[in-house]
Structure formats: C-alpha cells, structure tokens
Amino acid sequence: KKCLKRIKKTHYLNSFITVTEELAMKQAQEAEHRLLRGKPHGPLDGVPFSVKDNFCTENIETTCASHMLKGYCPPFNATVVQKLLDQGAVLVGKTNLDEFAMGSGSTDSVFGPARNPWSYTSSYREQSPEQDPDSDWVITGGSSGGSAAAVASLSSFMALGSDTGGSTRNPGSLCGVVALKPTYGLLSRHGLIPLVNSMDVPGIITRSVQDAATVLGVLQGRDEKDSTTVQFPNLATSLPEDFDIRDICVGIPKEYHAPGLSAETLTQWGRVASMFERAGAKVREVSLPHTQHSIVCYHVLCCAEVASNMARFDGLEYGHRSAVESSTEALYATTRHEGFNHVVRTRILSGNYFLLKQNYDRYFVKAQQIRRLIAEDFRRVFQSGVDVLLTPTTLSDAARYSDFIQEDNRTRSAQEDIFTQPVNMAGTRHPHRSEIPTYSTVQNLETAHIYFTSCQRWKNLNT
Ligand code: GLN
C-alpha cells in the first residue's frame, strides 16, 4: 500500500507507464497470508517490484514506450518476471523507458520523459511540477530510467531493467541506486523484447548490494526457452563472511580517461580508488587498448541487429496497424512510419545499409572483428590477476533535461556509453572468479557509499 501511495504521490516523475494496483493488492494479500502462516515462498515473498515496459507481462500492456506496441497485452510472462512472481514478489507496475530501449536518457518515450527524483531535493532546488509546471529537471539516465526512478523514489524495492550498452547501469548511477548488469547468459532473455540479442541482458536495480545479490540468486539459471543461458556452478549470491579486501586487485583502465570526462567525476573516481588502496587492496593501472573503437563498433552491430529485430513489427501481429490498407506494402510502410520514432527508424535504415551485400564486409564483419579484440582486452586484463575494474559509469553527472535534448548534445550522448558498453560487446566473465558476475556497477560516490555501508562484513573497509 505504501508503494502504491508513493507511486501516486510522485506521479510527476513519470516513472510508470502502467500501475497494476488491483493485481498488486491481490498478490500482497496472498503473500500476507503466507507470511502470517509462517510459510513464505522465500526471501522475496511480498516484496513490491516494478518491471521495465519492454518485458512481457501476461495480460498486462507491454508497450516498449512506443506507439507501435500501445495496447499490446502479451499472453505470457518473461521468464525473469515469472520467477519473481513465483517467489511471491508483488508487481506494482511497468516502468518508463526510451522507445524500444534505444537511448540513454529516458527522454524518448511516447509517454513523455521520466524525471530524476533527485531533481526535487534541496541541492538542485527545482520547484516540484505542482509548484511550477514549467520548471526544469535532471534526467534519470536511461534507457531503464523509470525503473531506477521507481527504486530511488521508494515506489518499489527492486526493479527490472534491461542492459544492452549501459541502460541499467547508467540510470542506476544517475539516480543513486545499485544497478547490476549480470553476465550475458546468466539470466534468461525470454520475454525481453530484443534490442540487440547478442548483447541484451536483464538488469537488476535495488537499494543495496545484498538485495541485488538476492534477486540475482532468484533469477539466474538455465532456461530452456533461451538457448543462450547457461548454468553457472557455484554462483555466490550472498556477501561472503570472510571477505578480505587485501586479496583484491582493482584495475583502473587508462583508456577510460576519455574525452568529456568531467573534472568532478574524475575526482570521485580517484577518491574511490584511494578508499580501496587505504583499505589494503592493490590498485593498478591496466590497459584496454581497443576501447576507442567501441562506440562506433557498437553502433554498427546494434543497428544491424535492430534492422533484423524490428522486422516483426509489421502491423499484422502486434499493436499498431495503420488505416492505410491499399496494399500490403503500403500497410507495412505506413504502420512502421507511424509506429516508430525517428531514433528507431534511423537505426533500422542504418542497419539495413550496413547489411547490404556490398557493405557487409566493410561494416558488419569488420565490427565483429573489432568486437573480438575488445573481448580479448578484458580477458587479458582479468588473466593478469585483476579481480575487478573500477570505472565511472557516465562521463558526468545527470544533465538537465533542457540541455540533454539539444540536438548537438544528443549526438554527443552516444559517447556517454563509453564506460558501460564495451563489456556488453565483450560478453565476458572473469575467468578465475566464476562467482563474480562481470561488471556489477556501483560506481558513483553516493552509490559506492551505499555499497560500503551495506557491506559491513567488509571489515577492512573503514569508511
Ligand atoms: N544507449 C545505448 C543505445 O541507445 C544502449 C541502450 C541500452 O543499453 N538499452 O543503444
């Protein structure tokens, strides 16, 4: 009830597309009965959660924040959603995103942009929209901005996001919550409407690292409906009792001192590195030499997969159908023109261009080769004895909405993914530490602070 109240109270954040109030109350009552009888399903029984609106939810509208899927109610639940429901977790709603998860601001939704809850704290001094409807705000980051805002604003205790190039970690960082991008193959993608199949993973957003680990424990595992999933033996999903920070070697990739990195972010990065050092961890510079090619390479591969993935939206099977029915081709074309925003249409066109017979080798094959080199970079570093990489998540803190939507900033915003997206392309996990899902993100100082305080067992870390 409290979460549903929070959703109503913070409706101006636009973090929810659908609120499943009735269903939530019914599920919560069932959970309450189980808890009263002393027979909960598990640690998540009765815990309210929200789900990014690109995961299929049975008989609940699933829009991908696109006109194309408005009104689409899937007949099944995504595996990760089903697993949470099976545990008794309570679904409170579906959250806002950039259309089809393409973007990094949660500003490109057919339902309007999501707003960062921290816009309305004293340090930003924005008037709440009730006080001043024209006031500016800072973005949530994206594309899972609704999920991050829902957790940050206490409207749910955990949320599912998706992460293809940073879409869970980026808003997690900008909204000051914990965001985890699990290793590819650890969680099922069945029912996650695809962006880039070879890079997409469901992401987990929570308020503490232990919560994220608990959710990971519930969601992980092989799923026969997703042939890319594997069973990871001995995956540790609780914080170890006897963890000694002095056994850890932290790598700082030198290429991540990228153009556009703000002075403030650089300082915070250094501060966190020194915290590790003071606590006894080894901190050393490492090299990921192909980082500079990753943004371009990602865009070629992303557009190519988008071009193929989006072919299913033809106006016949799902969602929107144009009124122009003079021919099948005309129906397809107008449906797709009306249904997709300019970002999606641009990627479809670019992708088909990269895949043309005469361009295929020059763009697609080349990008795949570079992808291999990027994956090798990570493998080499981990094999050299590094346990974790410490990097910022974004180049700077959250932009104001009015600045972010300027055309020149949008072009630049692709650059924002530089710290997060190489690892999606690498698809790697640590070769020796199979218990560590690669690239859990706890990376701005506020989030790092939550991390440290919630890991009291990390005794040597006296911050
Ligand atoms: N910003 C990237 C893109 O627009 C990544 C998005 C994501 O991770 N879903 O493709």
UniProtKB/TrEMBL annotation:
The keyword Nucleotide-binding applies. It is found in: Mitochondrion. The active site is at K52 (charge relay system), S143 (charge relay system), S167 (acyl-ester intermediate). InterPro entries: Amidase, Amidase_dom, AS_sf, GatA. Residues 1-428 form the Amidase domain. Keywords: ATP-binding, Ligase, Mitochondrion, Nucleotide-binding, Protein biosynthesis. Its EC number is 6.3.5.7. It is an enzyme of class 6 (ligase). It comes from the Eukaryota. One of its GO terms (cellular component) is mitochondrion. GO terms for biological process: glutaminyl-tRNAGln biosynthesis via transamidation; mitochondrial translation. GO terms for molecular function: ATP binding; glutaminyl-tRNA synthase (glutamine-hydrolyzing) activity. It catalyses: L-glutamyl-tRNA(Gln) + L-glutamine + ATP + H2O = L-glutaminyl-tRNA(Gln) + L-glutamate + ADP + phosphate + H(+). Its main location: mitochondrion. Residues 121-140 are annotated as: Disordered. Belongs to the amidase family. GatA subfamily. Allows the formation of correctly charged Gln-tRNA(Gln) through the transamidation of misacylated Glu-tRNA(Gln) in the mitochondria. The reaction takes place in the presence of glutamine and ATP through an activated gamma-phospho-Glu-tRNA(Gln). HAMAP family: GatA. Subunit of the heterotrimeric GatCAB amidotransferase (AdT) complex, composed of A (QRSL1), B (GATB) and C (GATC) subunits. This is Glutamyl-tRNA(Gln) amidotransferase subunit A, mitochondrial. The gene is QRSL1.
